[in-house]
Write a structure and sequence with these properties.
Layout lengths: L6 H20 L6 H7 L5 H16 L2 H11 L13 H15 L1 E5 L5 E3 L5 H11 L4 H6 L4 H11 L5 H27 L9 H4 L12 H15 L5 H46 L1
Antiparallel strand pairs: 1-2
Helix pairs in contact: 1-11, 1-12, 2-9, 3-6, 3-8, 3-12, 4-5, 4-9, 5-11, 8-12, 9-11, 9-12
Length: 280
């Protein structure tokens, strides 16, 4: 990919992306209070059920859609770059796809690709919802919040632009890296097994024994973007990416507010119950 650009352009793009990654690291979402609340196991089953349904709508259901859109739209590299320039980024995107779809490194007993769609990340997330006792009917009829819809729609609206969808995928990977470990800890605190399934591939990327590869995928996406950018796009891409981070911050603020409101409502009911019982 580097050879497809002049060295000067590659270096300029790389410097822009390094600065953008620093802006993301300093964005309020990276230090959002939800991280500490989740890590502290302060939320009950009801709050965590809602959060998982919200998170499912915002990103889990559409993540591979966005990856596939990026693969298709990599054709936009041509004819600006040399013929076949889209193949290297498609290769890296495919590694992400294979992980998401349930493939695993190595060969099976027949010497063929190892993996199973049962290990795909979306079905694994659905099994977490099973552990939370969220019925299929509840999933089908759940009405996501405006905040969750905004996060989802922002990514969906990028599918027609290769550069847009790639930068938002990179930012989404960062959000997954930031919030999967706290979600895992909050789930563990409720007595739900997190040593297998979805939280074995998300939330413990620092553990060499895990199946997580989010850091690698994020770095691949930033490299893909380094090849695709031209300097005239820097301001727009930076604004696009930081707006997505804003929406994620609003998403998590809304989740905390809803959880607190529900907790206060339950406390009020519990406080008034003896009075109501005596009155009855």
């Amino acid at each position: 990919m580097r050879a497809s650009l002049s060295e000067d352009l590659w270096q300029r793009n790389a410097a822009f992306i390094e600065n953008l990654r620093q802006l993301i690291a300093e964005h309020p979402v990276a230090k959002h209070p939800a991280i500490a609340v989740l890590n502290g196991g302060a939320l009950d089953h009801a709050a965590m059920r809602t959060i998982h349904l919200e998170y499912r709508h915002a990103i889990v259901q559409i993540f591979t859609d966005a990856l596939l859109a990026a693969q298709l739209q990599s054709r936009q590299l041509e004819p600006r770059l040399h013929p076949g320039a889209k193949l290297a980024p498609r290769f890296l995107l495919t590694l992400n796809d294979l992980d998401e779809f349930g493939f695993r490194p190595g060969l099976d007993v027949d010497g063929y690709y190892r993996g199973n769609p049962a290990y795909a990340h979306y079905p694994l997330f659905e099994r977490v919802l099973d552990e939370y006792k969220i019925t299929q009917q509840a999933r089908k009829t759940y009405a996501p919040s405006k905040s969750s819809q905004s996060v989802r729609e922002y990514l969906e609206h990028s599918y027609g632009s290769y550069i847009d969808v790639v930068v938002l995928l990179a930012a989404a990977e960062e959000e997954v890296i930031l919030f999967s470990p706290p979600l895992r800890e909050a789930t563990r605190a409720l007595g739900i097994d997190v040593n297998n399934g979805y939280y074995f591939v998300h939330g413990i990327s620092e553990d060499a024994s895990s199946d997580a590869a989010d850091d690698d995928h994020e770095n691949d996406l930033w490299l893909i973007l380094t090849q695709a950018l031209t300097p005239d796009q820097y301001p727009r891409i930076q604004a696009l990416c930081l707006r997505y981070c804003d929406l994620w911050a609003q998403f998590w603020s809304f989740q905390l507010t809803q959880a607190q409101m529900a907790k206060e409502m339950l406390s009020t009911v519990a406080f008034n119950a003896p009075v109501l019982a005596r009155a009855g």
